[in-house]
Design brief:
The chain is about 75% helix and about 0% strand. The protein is an all-alpha fold and about 475 residues long. Helix 3 runs antiparallel to helix 4. The N terminus is likely disordered.
Length: about 475
């Protein structure tokens, strides 16, 4: 700590007045020792802060005398305003506190500087060790691993060539197997269509041949290997001729079985069409077959009551239309599984389209017959021309009765009270109209139910086809 020089207060004190104030003012002036000490303290503090920023050595372990978040009080710069001894002592006390804080921070900085130097020294030692290890590693890689790398590269290239050759061999073997399968199918088709007449076997051979890629069938290797003395044609030509021949044969046999009403033979030849790649033809002939059955059943149901007493019944034609719809629904429900089993999912939709066309035709015949038998056109004409005489007269004012004898031939002579109502009732049979409306309602209800069933079946089968 420093003390005031004796000569700074050499003048005699005269109370607390003039001389003392003059001495204090000189002591605290910018050229005095207090202000110089403050400037030295500020410069030392600034140097410490610069050193801390340069080294970045501010750590958590540094002891703190001041509370966190509390700023250090800085002396005001205008020291000329200090006019009393108390203010001088307060200023000196604050300077002492700042000196202690600066000294403590300088000590912490020196301690951290030593720790930092030790860490840097350890890093230098580690760098030297790593450098020697890197040199050793490079020497090992250049002397020992280079040969191993070259050998591995040669082995990798050899393995790649071996894999390529193996893949080519597998491809060649696969083509040879396919050509052998093709030859087996060609010989099997011709043999089954010969004296054996095993149509199922012939269709199976054609189905197996259809799984062979066209590039193999039309390839030069197959054209060279497959033809034999018994079958000298090219494999593609042989398979196409066999498919056309079997298609014609299956059509004839299917139609013969349908004419004979032989369900087992119909099913037998119906299953063979997709095996020879003629699914469309099979679905068409099957659709015609079931449509013929629908037409025959509808005609028999209609002819059973036409011209007899049954035709006059109120719901005969509605029942005939219901039987038609039920027959079509049974075919769709029971035959759909068999068709999609052999022809694939969604194939029954094509048959449903043909059935719907036939149902429209037969339903139109039933409606036309119903219209003729029930005289719908005449009834509609009577209804349109009905004058509603009784209803009109009920709105007209009552006319006075005439006295005297009416003239001969006058219509009034034959008119009796209530006679107009009787004529109106005789003109239109309201009970018959009610029966017709009930029958029409029954037909519309059956048609709506049938349409919902067909729409649901088509939706479900198309979804299964797309999935």
């Amino acid at each position: 700590m420093w003390a005031l020089a004796p000569n700074d207060f050499s003048r005699p004190l005269v109370g607390l007045g003039g001389s003392l104030l003059v001495s204090v003012s000189q002591f605290l002036s910018r050229d005095g020792p207090v202000f110089k000490y403050i400037e030295c303290g500020h410069r030392a503090f600034d140097d410490c802060i610069a050193m801390l920023m340069f080294h970045g050595a501010q750590r958590d372990t540094v002891p703190q005398t001041s509370k966190p978040g509390k700023a250090v009080k800085v002396l005001p710069c205008e020291l000329d305003r200090v006019v009393s001894l108390a203010e001088v002592q307060a200023t000196i006390g604050e300077l002492c506190q700042q000196e202690a804080i600066v000294t403590q921070r300088l000590n912490a900085l020196v301690a951290s500087q030593n720790e930092l130097n030790r860490s840097l020294a350890r890093l230098d030692i580690s760098r030297a060790t790593l450098g020697s290890q890197a040199v050793s590693t490079r020497s090992i890689g250049n002397t020992m691993l280079s040969n191993a790398a070259l050998a591995a590269k040669r082995i990798s290239a050899a393995v790649s060539r071996l894999d390529l050759e193996q893949a080519r061999v597998k491809d060649t073997l696969h083509v040879v197997e396919q050509v052998a399968e093709l030859k087996t199918c060609v010989l099997g088709v011709t043999g089954s269509m010969g004296a054996a007449q095993d149509w199922e076997a012939a269709a199976t051979y054609l189905n197996r041949a259809s799984r062979i890629p066209p590039s193999v069938i039309n390839g030069s290797f197959a054209e060279e290997i497959v033809p034999t003395s018994e079958v000298p044609d090219l494999p593609k030509t042989t398979l196409e001729q066999a498919a056309e021949s079997l298609q014609g044969l299956f059509l004839r046999e299917f139609q013969r079985a349908a004419a004979e009403n032989n369900g087992s033979k119909v099913t037998r030849f119906f299953k063979l069409f997709p095996l020879i790649g003629k699914s469309g033809v099979g679905l068409d002939v099957y659709g015609r077959y079931v449509c013929q059955g629908v037409a025959a059943r509808a005609r028999s149901n209609l002819n059973a009551g036409t011209g007899g007493s049954q035709a006059t019944e109120g719901f005969f034609y509605a029942n005939a239309l219901t039987k038609l719809f039920e027959h079509v629904a049974q075919i769709v429900e029971h035959h759909g599984g068999l068709v999609e089993l052999h022809y694939g999912a969604g194939s029954m939709v094509r048959v449903i389209e043909r059935l719907q066309t036939e149902a429209d035709i037969q339903g139109g015949i039933i409606i036309d017959t119903w219209s003729d038998e029930r005289s719908i056109d005449r009834r509609l004409t009577d209804i349109r021309s009905y004058a509603f005489t009784f209803l009109v007269q009920s709105f007209l004012p009552a006319q006075p009765a005439r006295s005297g004898t009416p003239r001969a031939g006058s219509p009034n002579k034959r008119r009796v009270p209530g006679d107009s109502r009787r004529q109106d009732e005789e003109g239109i049979d309201t009970k018959g109209i009610d029966t017709l409306l009930s029958e029409m309602t029954a037909m519309a209800a059956r048609w709506s139910l049938y349409c919902r069933f067909i729409a649901l079946q088509c939706k479900v089968r198309r979804q299964s086809w797309f999935s």
